[in-house]
Amino acid sequence: MADTALTGLRYPWETPPAAGEAIEVAPGVLWFRLPLPMKLDHVNVYAFDEGDSWTVIDTGFSSKKTKAIWTDLIAGPLRGKPVSRVIVTHHHPDHIGLAGWFQTAHGSELVTTRTAWLTARMLILDPQEVPPAETLAFYRLSGMDSDLYRKRASERPFNFADIVDPLPLGFTRVKQDDRITIGGREFEVHIGNGHAPEHATFWSMDDNLVIAGDQILSSISPNVGVYATEPMADPIGEWIEACERLALLGRDDHLVLGGHKLPFTGLPPRMRQLIDNHHSALKRLLVAIQTPKSASECFSTLFKRNIGEGEYGLALVEAVAHLSHLYQTGLASRSLRETDGAWVYQAKA
């Protein structure tokens, strides 16, 4: 979800590092940008100097191209020193995709949350050649466009294992309130939710660095969606709770190192906006569903722009998440529409 312009944010670097290059964002901390084959066409990764080795934060997709980029980065900006540890903020493929490769090919230790590791390993071990019946049912209940539904039903679905290397047994867990030393700095672990379950963020106790992953981004709100795996989840409620809790930690001088877009300072107003953004979306939806609507019929209200086929899936799960939050908090009712079998939501009087 795109955000409106926000005053109070400052971007120390207006241009990201070029392919194969690094920007030093703090003493001993390098910022790289890796390509992604999608509309959000990049992921930010970071390397912390440990003296005789490096700790890498997140990894990018698994692909021959990304492995070649990493090989060049290790030989170039990382000065040939090994990557002794990989810290993964959450289980999404652009963040954990090459964690297993670093473990097996480079002997790196993997550090992440238990939920991130278990979820990623489960998804890697569950390749599917045809869409599961539960996923197709979820699409119908969400009111997916009929032509797109038929197309999705006939295609091989996205498989985690296509872009994530196998994860060998063994990882090091981090959890809420842990302390971990990275690049000579002591960080405190604070767990986010909503975008991904048990998403780790790291807050330096020694300077102003915050390793935020996708929990806190500068100019977009991370996707917060409901999926067929847990159709009655409430990630919007979890997202708002996590943002309100993390907002209490924010200082204006914090340098936030996010998984996408640009590093920034001005964290307190950004946290306020991340919270307000979803409250505003919920208020708009309550007005829109004075007459019953399915999730797919709320795109213009929720996103205020046209949604193309490439964005449709993420838009659908986010619309379901917002409507389901209204339903689960008692602000809306829902019923099955006879014509197409979709859930339609209506604001309560």
Summarize the structure.
This protein is of the alpha/beta class and 349 residues long. It contains ten helices and 14 strands. The protein has a seven-stranded mixed sheet with strand order 1-2-3-4-5-6-7. It has a five-stranded mixed sheet with strand order 8-9-10-11-12. It has a two-stranded antiparallel sheet with strand order 13-14.
Describe this structure in words.
32% of the residues lie in helices and 20% in strands. A hairpin with a 4-residue loop joins β10 and β11 (209-213). A 7-stranded mixed beta sheet has the order 1-2-3-4-5-6-7. A 5-stranded mixed beta sheet has the order 8-9-10-11-12. It has a two-stranded antiparallel sheet with strand order 13-14. It is α/β, with parallel strands linked by helices and 349 residues long. α7 packs antiparallel against α8. It starts with 22 loop residues before the first strand and ends with a strand. It has helices at 64-75, 93-96, 99-106, 114-124, 133-141, 146-154, 235-247, 267-288, 299-303, 309-328; strands at 23-26, 29-35, 42-49, 54-57, 83-87, 109-112, 172-173, 179-182, 185-192, 199-204, 209-213, 255-258, 332-336, 343-347.
Topology:
Layout: E1 23-26, E2 29-35, E3 42-49, E4 54-57, H1 64-75, E5 83-87, H2 93-96, H3 99-106, E6 109-112, H4 114-124, H5 133-141, H6 146-154, E7 172-173, E8 179-182, E9 185-192, E10 199-204, E11 209-213, H7 235-247, E12 255-258, H8 267-288, H9 299-303, H10 309-328, E13 332-336, E14 343-347
Parallel strand pairs: 4-5, 5-6, 6-7, 11-12
Antiparallel strand pairs: 1-2, 2-3, 3-4, 8-9, 9-10, 10-11, 13-14
Helix pairs in contact: 7-8
